[in-house]
TrEMBL record:
Domain of life of the source: Eukaryota
Single GO MF annotation: hydrolase activity
Pfam families hit by this protein: Abhydrolase_2 (PF02230)
Protein name per its UniProtKB record: Acyl- thioesterase 2-like
Domain Phospholipase/carboxylesterase/thioesterase: 28-186
Signal peptide boundaries: none
Membrane-crossing segments per the record: none
SUPFAM superfamilies: alpha/beta-Hydrolases
Species the sequence originates in: Olea europaea subsp. europaea
Higher taxonomy: Eukaryota, Viridiplantae, Streptophyta, Embryophyta, Tracheophyta
Length: 194
C-alpha cells in the first residue's frame, strides 16, 4: 500500500512496505479545486506516474492519500480504469484498491465524459474498491468536494465505493477514521490470514 500525503506546499509518498519511511516531494497545481477550475493534467499525470513507479515495487498495488494525496490517488484510479494517463500514455499499474482521506476527485468532467468508452473500462470501474473519508469540519478541502467526488464516482460506474463521514472531523485524521481504514483494507486485501 502506498500512502500519499501532503502539506500546503508539497506532497510526499510513503511506502507502507518499508521499515523506514522516506518522503518524496511531488505535486500538482491545486489552487482552485472547484469543478469549473482548469485541471492541471500535466502535473496530475506526473504525480500519478511517480506513484505508479513506486507501486511497481510494492507487493499489493493499492494507493491511498490525504488531501492532495487523496486527489492523486483518485486520479490514479481513473488512470487505472482508462488504462492510460490524461496525456494518453499507457498506465502501467493494475490497482487493487484506493483510499482517499479529506480529498477530492480532480478532472471530474473528463471522467464523466469518457467513462462509457468500453465495456472493459466500465468493468474496471465497477470492480475497483474505493474508500473515501471526509469530515464536515474540513476547512482546507470542503466536505462538499469529498461528497461530490463520491457522487460523481458512483454515477460514473464505480460501484464498489464506500463514503464515510465523521462528525466534527477537520483537515486531519482521527483514530476512528484510521481504524475504519485498517478494517476496510484488511477486508479488501485479505490481510491478517482471513
Amino acid at each position: 500500500m502506498l500512502i500519499y500525503c501532503d502539506n500546503a506546499f508539497s506532497a510526499s509518498a510513503i511506502s507502507m512496505n518499508a521499515m523506514a519511511l522516506t518522503p518524496i516531494i511531488l505535486g500538482f497545481d491545486a489552487e482552485d479545486i472547484s469543478e469549473d477550475a482548469p485541471d492541471d493534467v500535466e502535473g496530475l499525470d506526473a504525480s500519478a506516474a511517480h506513484v505508479a513507479n513506486l507501486l511497481s515495487t510494492e507487493p499489493a498495488d493499492s494507493v491511498g492519500g490525504f488531501s492532495m494525496g487523496a486527489a492523486t490517488a483518485l486520479y490514479s484510479a481513473t488512470c487505472h480504469v482508462f488504462a492510460r494517463y490524461g496525456n494518453r500514455n499507457p498506465y502501467p499499474v493494475n490497482l487493487s484498491s484506493v483510499v482517499g482521506l479529506s480529498g477530492w476527485l480532480p478532472c471530474s468532467r473528463i471522467l464523466r465524459n469518457q467513462l462509457k468508452e468500453s465495456n472493459e473500462t466500465s468493468a474496471r470501474a465497477a470492480t475497483l474498491p474505493i474508500l473515501l473519508c471526509h469530515g464536515p469540519g474540513d476547512e482546507v478541502v470542503a466536505y462538499k468536494h469529498g461528497e461530490k467526488s463520491a457522487r460523481i464516482l458512483s454515477s460514473a460506474g464505480f460501484q464498489n465505493l464506500t463514503f464515510r463521514a465523521y462528525d466534527g472531523l477537520g483537515h486531519y485524521t482521527i483514530p476512528e477514521e484510521m481504524e475504519d481504514v485498517c478494517r476496510w483494507l484488511t477486508a479488501r486485501l485479505r490481510l491478517g490470514g482471513s
